[in-house]
Each structure stands twice: as structure tokens, then as C-alpha cells.
Amino acid sequence: MTDTVWNNDRIWQATGNIFVDPGITLTIEPGTVVKFNAGRALEVDGTLIAAGTPTQVIRFTSAATSPAAGDWAGIIFKDSSADAVLDSNDNYLGGSILRYVMFEYSQRLQLESAVPLIDSSTFQFNNGANSNGIVFLLQPKGQSFVFSNNQVNDNAGSSALFIDEETYTPTVTITVRGNTFAGNDGIAINTCCSSVPDGSLLFSHNRFLDNGRMAIRNYGMPAVIDANYFAGNNGSLLLNHTEVTVTHNLFTGNGCDDSVASSAIGFHAPTGSGTPQISQNTFIANNCSKTMYIQGASLAIHDNNFIPTEAAYDIYMSPGTANLDVSNNYWGTNDATAIDARIYDSQDDLNAGTVSYSPLLNQPVLAAPAFLLNATTSPNPVGIQQASFDLVFSAPMDQSANPVVTFGPTQPYTSYAVLDNAQWLTGTVWRATYDFTSLVSRGAYSLSVSGASGLGGIEMPTDTRFGFTVDYAGQITDQSPPGKPPLFATGVNGVPGTAQGAWQAPGGSSPIIHYRYAIGTTAGSVDVVNWTLLNTTSVTRTGLGLVSGHHYRFSVQAQNQGGLWSLTSSNEFVAGVKKIVSLFLPLTRR
Fold it and tell me: What are the DSSP E strand ranges found in 305-428?
């Protein structure tokens, strides 16, 4: 093969194996589709440049009519292939690259002492049953390897990303950053098997969601695991190295992995001379019997948030493990009996070490990922009225978006949405209101809060721990809203800042108890005066700053005894002009 460009004006099909020889460059244009017959592979001994764009993804896929995971053999970068050249900020300068690539129905992407840049690509529906991982990094060289901003989803096999550094150059740095690993059958990231203390792994700002086994298994190099989101996995971490730092991560809704002694996080007799540092993490709502299992390891576990969850134990000490100091953590309570019940140590098994947790923190750790600290409904119980919902978070939040707040009597507690008057009162306090009517039955309700993110960008987990009660007196049988109230609106001659509105009570079987009005530039809008509650059938507003001669809309709604609001009546008026009321009298012929 000579230097070759595969254009996007056709579908390329590999009926046999394809070889990119040393010194040769294969460039694949954005938007190109490459299909492989069963068992066929692309082997790269030279340079592969497959750089798509967000709107023109390059697709490597199966040629089968009904494609299945593992149809084709994959892409193999050999040691002689051209490595990616990056600047000091990991920006691509040259060499082999896979960017904005769809890689599917294959067996593996194998890197044999090769270091291409892999960025912003999707790996899905692959089956690594015949290899150690869907992306198999074998014996990486002594330079940076970056795997960033990729989607690794719904793959079969024992591992999604497998890093074998058994014979690596000791100064290698491997960065796995900004990726999502979701719905994979096996371990999301599996490292094996070196005990050489040099080099490093950096796993940062990744999302691990609903994987069939643990998110990260590190039996090799020193590692920094920072600012990741672990949710719904069968296990989160299994670490076997002392020079490990686990910080600023959120662990929520994770189950058990049997290889981690049926725990979410395991530390197994780690090698090395350092002390693993576990700090500024938040552990909340994990549903494994043991959140953290410790075997033969001396750890520094400080400045974390341990929120009471379904786990029987937040910390579980294996027999033979030395005493452990876990002081200066936040437990969500100061009750020593309650905290003791969440720790398995020498009080439960004389062969296990003793866990000491005093002094403990009285407030959540601000540097740890944020969680919902409290949610209140006022009033509570709530009747047929407007209620306010106040959310208090453990740390300052990203105020560019509102949380998603719903409530309901049964899971998933999403029957009703809380949207009205939503606002951030402070960096940690959010408020919204909901108008309760007879359509919301009496009884107990749970809140569901999601969608809020801390300043570090980590989204808080869905929280359903808080609730309230709906109760109102009497029997309200009318569950129909009232009719629209007849409305007349006008300006005042020569006074453009004044508007007047008058209306009548609509018909209906239930009495009218409230009205509300608004003024805006279009029908139903509230950009001049927001909805304002009152009990009369007329109102005069002054000092509005309206533009003389411009048209505006006055809107009114009526509320009945069941709390139901009518449709909006809207009437146009002109600022500074009194509307003339035409009176039509019957004509009498004399």
C-alpha cells in the first residue's frame, strides 16, 4: 500500500485483512463508512489518520446484513505504527489518531506498544470475549497515552478498556479522561499486572454507569482517581496498590462485585510502600451490603461524606486488618450508636482491627461532590394552597440550571412537576412553588430531586429520601376548573403607566375563592407584571413604565374551591388611552 485516502463518497468494504505498512499513511475522510467482512481486521504498522467531525463521524462496522457483536476482528496498531504527537496540553499535533469515530460490532481495538490518540469516539456493541478488552492497551510505551471524551457503551466481554502494563517502560503516563463507560457487561477499566512503582494512571472526570461489574480494577500502577461519577455499577473500585489517591468522586447506587468480597469498593493487600489516600469523596445511596471492604491495607480515609444508605456497612474490616483511623469524616449524624452500626470492625469480629472515627465533622465536606442535604415543604401537611419547596445542597451549585423536582405517591415519584417561581436563593439553596388542587389526592408523597450539578461539574444523584403529606378538610367533589372570567381592560388617557382591569365571576358548581392577574406584551405573557393573587374583581396598577400608544395584554384567571384555575382570559389595551365602551340599545320604531 502507498499513501492512500479513503473518500466519503462511497462505502468501503474489507473483504480481506488490510495492512498499512511502515512509513505509509492511510487517511480516512470525515463521514466515511468502512465495513468489514467476518473475521477481517485492519493492521496498522504505519500511520492511520481517522479524524471525523461531530457531524461527520467515521464509522467502522460489520458488513453483515444483521450485524452482531464480534463480527469482525478489529483494528490493531503494531509497535511500528506512528504514535500520536501531543503538545504539553495533550492537543494533537500529528501521528495516528481516532477522533469522532464509531467503532462497533468488532472484537477489539488493540494497541501493541502503540500510542495513537483516541478521542471523542464511540465504542458500542463490541464483544471482547476472545481478547482481554474491547480497547486492549498492551505494553504501552514510555510516553503519554490519552483516551479522552469517548463513549464506551453496551459492550460484551470481560473488560471494556484493558491496560496491560506488565512490561511497560516505567515512565509511562496513561490518562483516561472525560469518558462515559455505560452498560458494559464486564469491568469498565481493568489494569494488570505490573508491580513496578514508577509511571502513573490518571482516571479523571469519567462517568461509570450501570456496568455489569466494577468500574475500575487496578492491580498495577500508582493511580490518581479524581472527579469521577460512579452510579449503578456492580462494584466501583478494586485497588491493589498503595500509591493510589481517590478524591472528589461521587459513589451512588452501586451494588456488589463478588470479587470484591461482595462490596462496592475493595482494597486488597496492596503492594507498594505508600498509603492510599481516600479524601473529599461523597458516598450516598449505595445498595451493596458493604460500601468499602478493607483487607490488609492501611488507608488514610479523611474528609469524606458518608451519607446513610441501604448498605449494611459503610466500612467493613476484614479479619487480620490493622486498626484504622477514619477521623474527620461527615456521617450525616453525630449519633455514635448509629455510626457504630455502619462500621464492621473489632466490635463485631475480634480478629478485625478497630475503626476510630472521632473527631467527626458536623458539616458536609464542601470540596466533596455535592448532594441534597435537606428538602422541606412548607406548609406540611399541605392543603389546597400554594406550597414552597426548599432544597438545601451540601456545597455551592451550578446555578445556570434548575434541578428537576417532581413528587408522587409511588416510585419513581414523578407524577407532578414542581416548576413555578423556581429560583436559586443562594449558592446552596433553591426554591420553587406548586399550587395544590383537589386533583392531588390526600396522602403521603415522596420528592424526587435530580439534575443539579456542583461547581466541579459532577451531577448529584437522584434523591428520593424526603417527602411530605397532602391533607385538606372536607369532601371536594368538583374536580373541574371554572370557566374563563369575562374581562375588560383599559389604559388611562394621558397616563401611560396606569392600567385597569375588571372582570366577573365565571359560572361553575364550586365557589370562586381567588383571582390572579398578569400584564404582558402578548396574550398570557407576564413580562410586565407577573401573576398576582387577589380576591377582588377589579384592579388598577400604576407606575408600570409602559410606552404610550403601545399595545399590551391584561390576563386574568379564576380559582375555585378545589384549587383549580380557569383558562386565561386576555384583553388588549393601549397604554395612555382609555378604551371606549360601546353601549348597544334596542331600536324602537315610533
Answer: 305-306, 313-317, 324-325, 343-344, 355-356, 372-378, 386-393, 404-408, 416-417, 420-424
